[in-house]
UniProtKB/TrEMBL annotation:
Domain of life: Bacteria
This protein's UniProt keywords: Signal
PROSITE patterns xref list: PROKAR_LIPOPROTEIN (PS51257)
Signal peptide annotation: 1-19
Protein name as annotated: DUF4823 domain-containing protein
Length: 164
């Protein structure tokens, strides 16, 4: 009887540890980094993003937060990171600034590797990957400004967050 009890407890503990495995899809969704640009994805909560960076509210709209990092920075350093996180929709958009013109070239290549050639390009001004042609559908824009390049990612819920 006692052996049966110990055996049952051992199996239950084993099942519990398997269910709590950090590599399960549910745990991966909760922890990140995620599969979208910069290790993010549409709909992430403020709490999920705060696992990677402290967030400070910026402005008065209640959904704009400054951070210091993104879950996947592709080995690059960003001078500014701003998340647009709606209380209902979750993460709607992401804006990053890099002063490095060299880093922006590296970043552009990484985006092209995933999403292909841009849909609109104005040399020296901006480049856009249009959400209509992307899966998952998102809009990525790089604005070229010497020593202050801006990268913006808009998720499909951006219009419901009043960002587009």
């Amino acid at each position: 009887m006692q052996i049966k009890f110990v055996f049952t407890i051992t199996i239950l503990l084993s099942l519990l540890m398997t269910a709590c495995n950090n590599n399960s899809p549910k745990q991966q969704f909760m922890k990140g980094p995620w599969s979208g640009p910069f290790g993010t994805q549409m709909g992430l909560t403020k709490l999920q993003i705060e696992r990677y960076t402290m967030l400070a509210e910026v402005g008065t709209d209640g959904q704009t937060f400054a951070g210091q990092e993104v879950p996947n920075d592709y080995g690059l350093k960003f001078d500014s990171v701003v998340y647009s996180i709606n209380s209902v929709e979750g993460l709607c958009a992401l804006s990053l600034v890099t002063k490095s013109d060299e880093d922006i070239g590296i970043l552009r290549q990484k985006i092209e590797d995933v999403f292909g050639k841009p849909t609109i390009e104005r040399p020296g001004k901006y480049v856009t990957w249009d959400k209509k042609n992307l899966k998952p559908s998102i809009l990525i824009v790089i604005n070229y400004i010497p020593n202050s390049n801006v990268i913006k990612v808009f998720y499909p819920n951006a219009d419901r967050c009043k960002l587009l």
